[in-house]
Prior knowledge:
mainly alpha
Amino acid sequence: MNNLIILPIIIPVVTGMVMVILRDNIWLHRFLSLLATVLIGIVSVLLLEQIRTIGIQILYLGGWKAPFGITLVADMLAVLLVLVTAIVTFCCLFYAFSSIGPERETLLLFLLSISHRRGKWCLFDRRYL
């Protein structure tokens, strides 16, 4: 059981909560979104190394196994998708800072949608056994 699997989903959600509380400071939003993306990239590289040395990582949320609980599985493909998403997200955020005005930036929604996408890649479905 490895708790690193949940971090690519939790980091953007927690960052989004902080961004809601501090909603008037656009420069802090930009910094937090870039920081969250870099942290997710670092966690992805750590997970890739663990998968390469140990094997597939599994996390049973709440300690309940399938079909009653939610199971997150990190295999090489899922973590590579998370890493590529972190790289593309960083590039998109960096481009958006220079091209979109501060009054139209919706970084919170962007981070939450990326978190949802990462969660789908690591979610284990019992039908695939």
